[in-house]
Amino acid sequence: MKKHNFYAGPSILPQSAIDETISALKDFAGTGISLASISHRSKEFDAVMNDAVAMFKELLDIPEGYSVLFLGGGASTQFAMIPFNLMRKKALYVNTGTWATKAIKEAKMFGEVIEIKGDDFFSIPKGYDIPEDADYVHITTNNTIYGTEYHEDLDINVPLIADMSSDIFSRKVDISKYALIYGGAQKNLAPSGVTFVIVRQDVLGKVEHKIPTMLNYQTHIDKNSMFNTPPVISVFTALQTLKWVKANGGVEGMNKRNNEKASAMYNEIDRNKLFKGTVAKEDRSIMNVCFVMNEEYKDFEAEFLEFATSKGMVGIKGHRSVGGFRASLYNALDIESVNALIAVMKEFESKH
């Protein structure tokens, strides 16, 4: 039976990226040495790092003046690195869920945090004022747990920071509107272990406090992400994924593909008498489709999960903090898997 992978992260990756990584783990670039054993100082891996940076810049149309970094520590380490490098007095954080909450907790160690939060996490706050003297504004563009997403870039007059862990390369982004974009790789890019950072160089070097060497972005810019040993395997897989994105229409191709998948899922949720969506329709994520049973069918939740699992649907259980169901539709997920889940939902409806 074919397994349809809807995990929220680590999650589905292109099969070609997996196959290339397997091959490189056996013999990397014809060296006769495994990728897991190769020196990151070798010319072969140096080429991988340079190609990955170049591919990032090409696919996202990154302007001059930005650096692309591949770091360890996950996006969670960036929650501290960002205020360490950029906060002088205060910053505004839009709290749209669990990960934004964690980022706010770290930022409060470095200065004043103005927190913008709605009544709940099922819609994105709008219409708030941004202090002109804020050092930056921080947003989380896609929220994997609650299923909301920004669909357009904010146009503001202070530096904009964005956690794009779960929607990078899923839609076209105007990089020039951001001072820094970061994210963990384990959604749309690579296995966990590497974190990407896109940073505009002119926002650095303005804080008065000292920054530990490994937490200073300039350290990694100066050494092309190789001040210390980088996550070699994850960077290699990221490059293979970027090649797949380019071969499949680039970011525009991914966006068309993702909108098709998400539209099909939401149409079925809205049609099916058993299910309902959980977030404001204008803020629905195209990456993480979250839904629950309608109130009168709540007792069927465990039964549906068991039924869907028996049909090869993997990873559709909602996050433990919110319950319900979640279908993650990352770039590498094929429309075939979405159609398979929709067929399961229809079949379960017919039984009840």
Could you explain how this protein is built, in words?
- The structure is a single chain.
- By secondary structure, this protein is an alpha/beta fold.
- The protein has two domains: 15-247, Type I PLP-dependent aspartate aminotransferase-like (Major domain) (Aspartate Aminotransferase, domain 2), CATH 3.40.640; 249-350, Aspartate Aminotransferase, domain 1 (Alpha-Beta Complex), CATH 3.90.1150.
- 35% of the residues lie in helices and 16% in strands.
- The strands form four sheets. A seven-stranded mixed β-sheet has the order 2-10-9-8-5-3-4, with helices on both faces. A three-stranded antiparallel β-sheet has the order 11-12-14, with helices on one face. Strands 1-13 form a two-stranded parallel sheet.
- Helix 4 (98-107) links the parallel strand 3 (90-95) and strand 4.
- The longest helix is centred in the last third of the chain and has 22 residues, at 250-271.
- The radius of gyration is 21 Å and the shape is globular.
- It starts with a strand and ends with a helix.
- The model has no long low-confidence stretch (mean pLDDT 97).
